[in-house]
Amino acid sequence: LFILILVPIDETPGISILYIFVDIQVNVQHIIDTLKHHFTSESKLALVSTIQFVRTLQIIKEQLKDHVADVIMPQTKPLSPGEILGCTSPIIPDSYSILYIGDGRFHIESIMIHNPNASAYKYDPYSKEFTREYYDIKSMHTIRQSEISKAANGQVWGLVLG
């Protein structure tokens, strides 16, 4: 079990921190064309991604605002608007669909767990694939409960800090 705690800058006096933001260039027009094909004027979208595509999210939001009912970039501080991590994701309003721009499953699973009733979609900017994503919340709860039960009988516990 890994737990990542994000510490706001104002809570770290005396510690020098250098944030380096990476922006990966992708074919934004293909993303927008794909999304316009799949979403209608009634769609409400919550755009999310990892930090390297947050600038792309801003462009997508601007381009889609006249095509769909609403587009938001939800935020969980200290992250940027639209940014998610595997450990940190926002709760989105009811009736909004999740639209994740990125690859892999780790980060999108975080927001699907936090919003189990929201429809989730992923656009992978590397493969240019658009997919509907699912997460088995019931199975996750069953597995977690089983592991908690096993841990309750443990004689030795370890805590990793760092």
From TrEMBL:
Record-linked InterPro entries: DPH1/DPH2, DPH1/DPH2_2
Name of the protein in its database record: 2-(3-amino-3-carboxypropyl)histidine synthase subunit 1
Family to which the UniProt record says this protein belongs: Belongs to the DPH1/DPH2 family. DPH1 subfamily.
UniProt record, GO biological process: protein histidyl modification to diphthamide
GO molecular function annotation: 2-(3-amino-3-carboxypropyl)histidine synthase activity
